[in-house]
Amino acid sequence: MNDMSAIALTAETETAQKKVFIRTYGCQMNVYDSTRMEAILAGEGYAQAAAPEEADLVILNTCHIREKAAEKVYSELGKIRAMKREREGAGRDMVIAVAGCVAQAEGEEIAKRAKGVDLVFGPQTFHRLPEYLARHRETGRTVVETEFPAEEKFKALTAKASPGTAVAAFLTVQEGCDKFCSFCVVPYTRGAEFSRPMAQVLAEARGLAGRGVREVTLLGQNVNAYRGEADGGTASLARLVTELSSVPGIERIRYTTSHPRDMSDDLIAAHAENQKLMPYLHLPVQAGSNRILKAMNRGHTAEEYLDLLAKVRAARPDIAISGDFIVGFPGETEAEFEETMALVRTVGYASAFSFKYSPRPGTPAAERPDQLPEDVKLDRLHRLQALLLDQQQAFNRSCVGGTFPVLLEKPGRRDGQMIGRSPYLQSVHIEIPEGGPGFGALVECRIEGVGPNSLSGQYVRQTA
Ligand code: 5AD
Ligand code: SF4
Hints:
alpha/beta, Rossmann fold, Transcription Regulator spoIIAA, CATH 2.40.50.140, six-stranded parallel β-sheet, five-stranded mixed β-barrel, 15 helices, globular, binds 5'-deoxyadenosine, binds iron/sulfur cluster
C-alpha cells in the first residue's frame, strides 16, 4: 500500500465513523448509565464526540429530582435543536435523544414541548438503544419508550463491558425505590426496588478490576436495601461487600445512597471489620423535626437517626458522615427548621447536600396547600448551607497533620503533582517524587494543607 491510499483510507474511515455526545445530569447513577450507553453504542460503531455539534447522536441523560434540573434540559434542547438545523443545512443528520428520569416522567410531553427530539426513553430501557435507533431510521418517527424491564436491562448490560481507563468506577447494584418519601419522584421514575443478582455484580467488578479499576462505588437509590439473588437465597449489601473485597485488584469499596431504615447491623459491623470498606457514609436524614419527618413519610425519627449514627461511629470511630437535607418542606415552621440546624450541629457532617423543597408533579407533598414562599426557603437554605460549609471546613482542617492512604487518580495542575482521593472522599493534591508511583497506586500521604475543596500533602510511601 502506498502513502496516498493510506491517507485516502483514513479520511474514509473518519467520515464513516458515527459519533455520539452524551450530556449527563443529576446523580451518580445517571453517570453510570451514561457510561453503559457509551459501551452499547461503541458496539454499534459510535465513537465519542468532543462537542454536541460534532455528533450524529446527542443524548441528554436527564434528572427529574428538582424542578431546575428539568428546566435545564428544556433549555439545552433548544440549543441542540439549533445545532441540528445547522448540521441539516450542511447535509448531515443529527438524532436527538432524551434519556433518564425526565424522559420517564414526561414521555410524549417532551416530544410535544421540544420539537426535533427523535428518541425518548427512560432509565430502564436504554439497553434497547440500538433497536430505537433502527426504528427511528426506518420510520422517521419519534420513538417514545417508558417501560420498566429492570431485570432484562441488567442482563443485557452484563454482556457489554464498560469502557474507560479510570481507577475508580461506579457499579449499579440496586435500582428503584419502594419508600415513597412524599416529596420524591424516584419511585415513579426509577420504579420499584430491584437488586441485581450477586454473581452478576461480582462479574462486573472482576471486569472492572481487569481494566485497572481499584475503587468501586456501589450505587443504588436505596443501596443498603440490596437483596441480590445468591446461592438460592438472597445476599445483603454487607455480604456483597465481603465478596467484593476478595476480588483481586479491588482495594476500596464505597456505597451510596443509603436509607436509615435499611442500615442493618451486619452492614455496620462490616465498617468495623472490613478494611476495604471506606470510612464514609452518606446517610440522608432530610430534616431534623419529627413532625416534618413524618409528613415526609421517612419512616424514622430524628432520635432514631442519631442512635444509628452512634452505632456506626462506635463500629468505625473515624467514619465521615454525609447527608442530604431539604429545607422549606410544606408547612415547615421556623422552629422546625431550627430543629434541622440543631441536628446538624449534633452530628457534625464532613460534607452534605442541601436543597430547597421543590414541588414535583405527581408526588403527595406537591398537592399540599401549605407551600412556603420562595424567600423563606431561600433564607433557610443559606443558613443551613453556611453551617454545613463551616462543618466541612472544620472536618478538612482536622485532617491536617494526619497520614492517610490516598488512591492516585489523575495528574495535577503542576508537573510532578497528582490528584488522589482520601478514604473520606476528599481530593488530595500530592507532590510525587520523580520515578514515583502513577495512577492506580495507593500511597500514604501526610496531609499538610487545606484548600476550599481539597487537601494537599506530601508523599510518604507506596502501599499497594
Ligand atoms: N425537592 C428538593 N429536594 C429533593 N430531593 C429529592 N426530592 C426533592 C424535592 N422534591 C433531594 C433529597 C434527596 C436528594 C437526592 O435530592 O434530599 O436525598
Ligand atoms: Fe426518594 Fe425517599 Fe426513595 Fe430516597 S428513599 S429515592 S428520597 S423516595
